[in-house]
Amino acid sequence: MYQWKGLIQEFKEYLPVSNKTPIVTLNEGNTPLIYSNNLSSIVGANIYLKYEGLNPTCSFKDRGMTLAISKAIENNSKAVICASTGNTSASMAAYSAKANIKSFLLVPDGYVALGKLSQAIIHGSEVIKIKGNFDKALELVIEISNKYPVTLVNSINPYRIEGQKTSAFEICIQLGDAPDILSIPVGNAGNITAYWKGFKEYKDKNNIDKLPKMFGFQAEGAAPIVKKQKIENPQTIATAIRIGNPASWEYANKALEESNGYINIVSDKEILEAYKFLAKNEGIFCEPASAISVAGILKYYKNFDIKKDFNIVCVLTGHGLKDPDNAISQSSQIKEAIEPNLDMILERIMS
Ligand code: F0G
Questions:
Q1: CATH number reported for the structural domain that contains residue 116 in this entry
Q2: pTM
Q3: What pLDDT digit, counting tens, does each position of 106-135 carry?
Q4: Residue of minimum CA distance from atom 10 in ligand 1
Q5: CA angle 14, 30, 317 (to 5 degrees)
């Protein structure tokens, strides 16, 4: 009987592991690539959604975290630390719980979605809220991990990128080829770096002659790469990508340049439109930051010569349940409870 045992087991010939690496896994990866009828007919090409919200802690971070925590254990680390807008911390917390090591996290107070914070807490991470943004938190954890015996598991840890690149492998396997365009949200820029590395490595090993163009999208108020300058006080409703000084900035630029790609901004309003569109028309609930990969394609596809047989993959990085507050505030008001009376209920249905 075949059972998926997580991405390290599945892709070990592509990863920096040996027989001695203790594999810490929650059977992450193997997420679906879902064809979108509605988006395909709007854009006039095949649009697929890589639904990374279906990983064990409901975001793509699990791909990098299985490897980062496995290598931390192999190297006898007893504790890990990260700065996070929420998803990295949820993933670190779960994989550290599984590995039975301590985990510490710094988060920007007031800007982490409820679901993510609840995951970090229930898995037993030490949550330290700071009166500052993600960029400040990242600076601090880098300093702490340089001075003290605690392993940094943000995406500047190269094992994070190694794990995350496996999503590119899965897309090539699922499509039977590389896509023409890969559309992805850009925050700290680790994921765009990882996918590009993954596509290149998969092509080299598997007789594929195509590489995708990498399309990255940033929120209008948090778009340092598009604007080519640090943003001191980044703002967006998509708190996952509320970042003004991405750690992998240079690598993102390299991926964009080498792939002949594209990066641009999307407003919060456009992000929320795509978020609701996916929920209402595709049955897919992703978090606002994830919807930017679809919003960006919808906003800019007319600027490109998109052919009918193009395969465009939009990465949906995290599950919508991460951020229930946003979902509820976007919906029309839930009405007051009424008596369990048939006539009253029929009246409500007919109104
Ligand atoms: N989408 C989601 C849902 C995220 O949580 C993140 C990053 C991104 C996209 C952007 O990916 O940073 O590799 O460019 N979240 C980090 C965190 C910063 O702390 O959870 P990136």
A1: 3.40.50.1100
A2: 0.97
A3: 999 999 999 999 999 999 999 999 999 999
A4: 187
A5: 95
